[in-house]
Structures are given as C-alpha cells and as structure tokens.
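Suppose a classmate hands you a notebook page containing two proteins, each written out with its sequence and a corresponding row of structure tokens. How would you begin to make sense of it? This section walks through that situation. The first entry is reproduced here exactly as it would appear on such a page.
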Amino acid sequence: MRDRFAFSISILVVVALTAIIGMIGVFGAAGGSDFQEQLSGNGFIFQAVSVTDGDRIKEITTAKVSFGGKLGFGKDNEPAGNWHVKFFDVGNNELDGSQFRSAKIISLRFDDACGKSAHFSALGKLDNELGWNLLVDASAADPVSGHEANIRVRLSHPVYGEVYDSASEFTSVDYCIGQTLVDSGNLNFR
C-alpha cells in the first residue's frame, strides 16, 4: 500500500513539474517578462460627431477601436509578444465586431519620432482567418513635451490588400501625422 502511495505521489510530482516547466516556456516567451525593451498597454480610440437633437447637442460615436498587448525584444534579440485589436465600429462595415490577434511579431522598431515610439508589424488572425497583417505606430505620453499617447492601426491581407487604416477616420494629432490620441487607456515603454 505504501509503495502505491509513494508511486502515486512521485507521478503527481513529475506531472506538476512538467506543467510548471511548460508554463515557464510558454509564458516566458509569449508573455515577454524577459523583454529587453518593451511596449505594453491597452486602450480605446473613439471618433465622435456632435448632432442636434431638438434643443440639445449630443455626441454620436462614428468609430471605435480597442487595442492592447505586450511586445519587445526577447533574449534572442528577436521581436516577440502579442497584440490584439478589436474593430467595434469602423468605416469598413465588414470589419465591425472583428478581432485581430497576433500569432507572430514580424518586425519591431523603437525610436523617438513622436516621443517614445514603437513601430511594428504582426502576422495573425482576423477572427478565425489566418494570414492578416497588422501595422501599428504607437507613441507614449510625454510629460516634457505635453504630448499624449497616440496610435495608428493598419490592417491588410495579401489577397484583399489594405482593408483598414485608422488615419482615414480618426483625427490625427499635429505632432504625429496619421496617429490619433488614445482616448482611454495608456501605452507604456520600458
């Protein structure tokens, strides 16, 4: 009886250690806890118009996109991480309600073009269809210059071409042409 108990415990320990090692491998690579330089954050961008309704003026949202994730350069100095974008309500009605999820970060560059900025492309899925490419230009808030966080999102597919560019329906900030203010949320660089 004791031998069976000891054997059962040893099997449990082996299974638990295997699971822990597997999680470290997955989350260490994809989660980016070891990124040398990284962008992380999430938020929304909105575009609204004012309309008169009787004797009052109300704002109507004409476009809404959310984004988020974490990416950077891993120990091998290759871009890694994950990013997602949800197209709630955009000019291309076929995208309304769709969600892009990255499968691989293809390229990543950090610079100071519009404050601390990241420019990256990601290959991934739009809903359940693989093969989509997302291009993002994102800049963090800069208290010294007074610039707020801003972002530009472009979505394309090898067959369909470019199907979305946030610059076509969101108001650009004057210091980062094509990018729009992050209305809710934040972008962080480390």
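The notebook's second entry, a different protein, reads as follows.
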Amino acid sequence: MKPRFSSYPIGELLIRLLVDSGLSLPDFMHAIGYGNSAKGIATLDHWLQTGSGNPLFLERLASSPLAPEPAALRSAIAATTAILRDERRTEKQRRIEEEKRAFYPFVQGIAELSRPTSITMFAVTGGPSRYTVRLPQDILSWPDDAREELLRDTISRNYADNGGRTLFMGKITGYLFFREFGARPISYTVDGIARGELDARPAGEATLTINGRTIPHGIFALGSLRP
C-alpha cells in the first residue's frame, strides 16, 4: 500500500483509523460498507487530498465497527472546515490582487440585449472584444481635456467601425469607461459624452469548446451591465 498523507485534520484522522485497524486498504473499505473497494479508496483519497468529499463516506465510517469517537470526528470536521474557509479566503484575495495588477483602463460597449441571440456564435465571433478598447495605462494622469478627447475619439471610432451594432446582442446603446480596478465605471453616450457613474461590471471572459477545440473569446456576462 502506498503511503498516504493529508494536510487536513479529517484526513489525519482517517489515516490513523486505517493504520490502527491493521487492515489492508480494500479490507478497510469492505469493513465500512463499500462493496466496491476501488470506489471507496478513490473517495478516501479525495478526502485526504482536499479535506472534503462525499459525506456518505463519513456516514458509513461512523456507523461501522471502525467508527471513531463521535467527538473526535466532530472535532476533525470542524478543524478542517476552518482550514478550508481560510484557504478559500486566501485564494480569493490572491485572485483579487492578481486581477488588480493585470488591470488596465478600457472602454466597453453596452449591448441592447442582456443575452446573445446565439451564445455559440457570439463566442465564435469574439464576444464583446469587438467593442472593447484598451486605453493607455496612465490615462488618469492626463489633463481632463486630453483624456475626454481621447475617450470621445475612441468611442466614436469604435461605434462607427461596428456600425452601431454588436453581433448577436443588438445595438450598442452606450459605452462604459472602466478607469480603475474595483471603481464604478463612467457611462458615456455613443457620441462620447459622459453621463455619470453606473453600478456595472465588465463582461467576463469565458471559453467555448466545439469538437474538442477551445475558443477563448466567449463573453457571457453582459447582462451584468445595469443602469
């Protein structure tokens, strides 16, 4: 039997029970109610590696002759839950910091429809990348007049290039200027005139897979733009 390790209290408890039982891994699985020992072993390994898994495994263990003390099982579950909560919090903060470092100012068109008339074709044709334009990283340090002139020119040019329409989401009804990470964007008319801030988010990038080929341009969050 290969050595098994776990960074989680519930995993450490399971390993201790296995070792103390003196049974082989397949026999251990049979003892806690698994007719298919391979399935039980796979479930055990998932608990050991991730600190979570199918609760039926723990239910079977708790009702078997190899059951740990109920208080020990509750304690291991509670300690593992706390660790997983901290891991999720840390990972969320890491993603936020990564997105913040990668952020650049941009304008993005506001589509008439909240959902594409064809999600597949919308993804294949690039989603809102056609009406999303990256701006200079230092644009907020520009004089107001110069910044607004660039925004008007950028918006007017993009609107004209697209004929005032998206693909599969209707007309372009305006634009949003995302100037800082986490800040509310500023809404603009299709003529590049500022209308004030909006509570809105940029469309997020997704992927579409067709016949095993991944197409990285699908954007499915335009419905999150809300006035």
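A careful reader of the second entry would note: Helices lie at 9-21, 25-31, 37-50, 55-62, 70-102, 119-124, 144-161.
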